[in-house]
C-alpha cells in the first residue's frame, strides 16, 4: 500500500491507495525540447579555419556560423578540372578515330566489292576489329569524362559548403571543436537548438506504451509555470530502451505555448480529452510521476 497526501479545502488528509490506483493516475515525466535541433558538421575532411559564433549566441537562418579551410580543396579542384579537360580531349580523339574506322569500313563493305570478292576475309575482319576497338576506346574515354565531371562537381560543392550556415533561427548549444583543429567528414562542429517552437519528450513504461498512438490527446503540465496545456502524441519510438525498459515519445502542443517556456523545463504528461488549451491550473502538492523503475 502506498501513502498519498490529498488536499481538500486546504486541509491535508492522509489516505491509503493501492499501487495500482497510483499507477492509474500518476503522469509520465517529460522535458521540453526545441522543435528543431541540428549538429552542423563538415561535408569533407578539412581544418576549421574560423568560428563566427560562440555558445549561447543567437543566430538567424542563413547566417554564417563557421568557415573551413578551402585552400587544399581549391588546389584539388584545379587539378580535377585539368584532368577533366584532358578527358574531354581524349574523348574527342576517340570519336574521330571511330569515325575514321567506320568510314574505312564503309568503303570496303560495298555490295559490289563484296560480290566480286575484292578484299580478302582477313582484310574485312581487320576493319571490323578496328571499328570495335575504336568504339570501345570512345566508351572508355566517355566514362573517364563522366568520372572527372563528378569529381569536379563534388569539389565545387565542397568549396561552396566551406561556409557553414544556420538552417533556422536558433541558439548555439555546444561547440566541441576549436579553430585550427582538423575535422573529419561528418564530425559535429556546432550544435544548434531552434527557437521556432517547442515539443515535449517523455518516457512511457513499456506495458503502457501500447495504449498511446500518434494523435492521442494529452495534458502537458509545465511544473515551473504551474500551467497545463493541451497537446497530442506526435511520435512514439518503435523500440523499448533496453536499460530503462521505457518507450520514449514526442508530444506537440496544440497551441503555441507561452514565451516563458524554454528548453529543459519539466513536464508532467497525462492522457487528456480532445480539446484546446486546458488553461492554467495551480497545484499545491507535487504530483507523483512514473519513473519506470
UniProtKB/TrEMBL annotation:
Chain coiled-coil ranges: 138-165
Annotated keywords: Coiled coil, Signal
InterPro entries, sorted: Beta-barrel_RND_2 (IPR058792), RND_pump_MFP (IPR006143)
Signal peptide from the UniProt entry: 1-17
Region ranges (Disordered): 270-293
Keyword check for Coiled coil: yes
The keyword Iron-sulfur is assigned to this record: no
Limits of the CusB-like beta-barrel domain: 200-268
Similarity field: Belongs to the membrane fusion protein (MFP) (TC 8.A.1) family.
PANTHER family: HLYD FAMILY OF SECRETION PROTEINS, MULTIDRUG RESISTANCE PROTEIN MDTA
The protein, known as: Efflux RND transporter periplasmic adaptor subunit
Organism: Hyalangium rubrum
Amino acid at each position: 500500500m502506498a501513502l498519498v497526501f490529498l488536499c481538500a479545502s486546504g486541509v491535508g488528509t492522509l489516505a491509503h491507495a493501492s499501487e495500482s490506483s497510483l499507477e492509474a493516475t500518476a503522469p509520465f515525466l517529460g522535458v521540453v525540447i526545441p522543435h528543431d535541433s541540428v549538429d552542423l558538421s563538415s561535408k569533407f575532411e578539412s581544418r576549421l579555419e574560423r568560428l563566427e559564433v560562440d555558445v549561447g549566441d543567437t543566430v538567424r537562418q542563413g547566417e554564417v556560423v563557421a568557415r573551413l579551410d578551402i585552400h587544399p580543396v581549391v588546389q584539388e579542384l584545379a587539378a580535377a578540372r585539368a584532368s577533366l579537360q584532358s578527358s574531354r580531349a581524349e574523348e574527342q580523339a576517340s570519336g574521330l578515330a571511330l569515325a575514321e574506322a567506320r568510314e574505312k569500313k564503309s568503303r570496303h563493305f560495298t555490295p559490289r566489292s563484296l560480290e566480286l570478292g575484292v578484299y580478302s576475309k582477313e582484310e574485312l575482319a581487320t576493319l571490323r576489329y578496328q571499328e570495335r576497338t575504336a568504339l570501345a576506346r570512345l566508351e572508355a574515354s566517355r566514362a573517364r569524362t563522366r568520372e572527372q565531371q563528378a569529381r569536379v562537381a563534388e569539389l565545387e560543392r565542397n568549396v561552396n559548403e566551406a561556409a557553414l550556415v544556420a538552417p533556422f533561427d536558433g541558439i548555439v548549444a555546444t561547440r566541441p571543436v576549436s579553430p585550427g583543429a582538423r575535422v573529419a567528414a561528418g564530425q559535429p562542429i556546432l550544435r544548434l537548438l531552434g527557437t521556432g517552437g517547442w515539443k515535449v519528450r517523455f518516457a512511457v513504461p513499456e506495458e503502457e506504451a501500447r495504449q498511446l498512438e500518434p494523435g492521442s490527446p494529452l495534458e502537458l503540465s509545465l511544473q515551473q509555470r504551474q500551467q497545463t496545456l493541451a497537446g497530442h502524441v506526435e511520435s512514439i519510438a518503435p523500440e523499448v530502451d533496453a536499460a530503462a525498459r521505457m518507450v520514449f515519445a514526442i508530444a506537440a502542443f496544440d497551441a503555441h505555448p507561452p514565451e516563458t517556456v524554454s528548453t529543459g523545463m519539466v513536464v508532467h504528461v497525462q492522457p487528456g480529452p480532445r480539446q484546446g488549451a486546458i488553461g492554467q491550473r495551480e497545484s499545491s502538492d507535487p504530483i507523483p510521476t512514473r519513473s519506470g523503475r
